[in-house]
Amino acid sequence: MGNQLANCKTLKQALRTFVLDADGDLATGLEAYSAEQLRRWSEQKLQGVSCSELAIDMFATEGQVNGQSVLDAFVATQPELSASDRALVKSWQDTFNGLFRVLQVTSEAYELINWLTEKRYWVRSNGLQSEDQLSRLAPDEIIVARLSPVTDGNWMFSGPLLLLGKLGKPKLAVAVGNFRNWFPDHLYGDAPDLLEEAWISVERYHNDFVQFFGAERVTLSGYELNKKLKAYQEVATQRELEKVGLDGSQSLQDLVDQAGVSKEEISEAAASFGEDGREVSRLLENSKTTKMKMPSINLPDEFQRAEAVTVFVHPRWGQTFLKDYQQLTQLLEATDEDATAKRDRLLQKYLKEEAVNVYVWRCFAEANPEALETALRRVLNRPDFSLPNDLDQVLAQSGKFLEPKLPEIASVPVHLHNLFQEALQEVDQGSSKKKSKGKAKRKKGFASL
């Protein structure tokens, strides 16, 4: 293993030198890739790591120039490489970013678990990580790192590390959300099966929504939309329960009775999994509060109070809520100066807002092509702007992804769902304790007057 790792370090350093010393299209590709990554990471507040070094490392393993991967371009310039070395370098296309917890540290390697997928790895340094960072790796440390394969079952760090410390569940949940924003293409980078399931869930949501609402785009008052979403949720929940043979109108006690087991047996089984048997018993006795359904869906207040909310759904782009889409369509058709100024401000807002994705913009273009093109010529100060030819370029320059990234409505693995729920509970408990302490202090203060 020692010789193989030393060979990996030599090859990785040669790859890095190849990328940094390149000229022509490869150099241009690195510059463009790095600029885009640095811009996004700046917006998403990625700190505590050398972003430029991270961008270089990512470009080396996943960059494409003129239809050829950087890895293939590197191999083509190294005719002296053995067949095994060529295969090793090309295997680095499987390099991925992950959010890891350190399980144990030995004299030679680190055992990590990817928090996003629960997969475990034995990892070694490739010589490019600082000794100071490596010395700080200890059990329960949370890190953001890139892993590259070395041999079957063995991996090495690739690029710089980001050490986040030993995090409680609330901060760990935040770290998961940050990772999603920093590296949307690597959310399940080592688990294509989970990624596929997540995408299937987005498509299923889209199909269910269209079946219930009758269209991919719906405009209702915020109040009415909130009511309809709750009704939609009930239907979707019932459908999922029927798939596994359960009746959603029944309480937990009803289901237990049908199963032919006692409350005591259920409580004992729950306790064996770390659950409070008394709490299970309480739920069994309260048939009114134990209906089998998902948590309620509630629109944010700003949407509930809106006169009109438009919902866009798509099997890949997910779901988008806009409370001023109707206003925009009306402004696009108006010609007076006041309407023009309002329209320009709204279009500038939509160019900046991350929620208004490329799919929504393409819906705008399809609905009002001539009016939108004229308006954007004015907003962008580009008299020659062409909607068919230039829209995607403008959207990319505004920081929008031209290809869909996994939407937030996608399902998540059970362990992540549980993490988020437990994190929320801890935050709620912490808030309650602070309020209680605050009240106690005030009472003591009044008593001393």
Describe the overall structure.
This protein is α+β, with helices and mostly antiparallel strands. It is built from 19 helices and eleven strands. It has helices at 2-21, 24-43, 51-62, 70-76, 83-91, 131-136, 169-182, 192-213, 222-243, 252-259, 263-272, 277-285, 301-304, 325-333, 337-352, 358-367, 369-380, 387-397, 414-447, and strands at residues 64-65, 68-69, 96-105, 110-114, 120-124, 142-151, 154-157, 162-165, 217-220, 309-314, 318-322. The strands form three sheets. The chain has a five-stranded mixed barrel. Strands 9-10-11 form a three-stranded antiparallel sheet. β4 and β5 (120-124) form a beta hairpin. α16 (358-367) packs across α17. The N and C termini lie far apart (74 Å). Residues 270-280, 286-296 and 440-449 have low confidence and may be disordered.
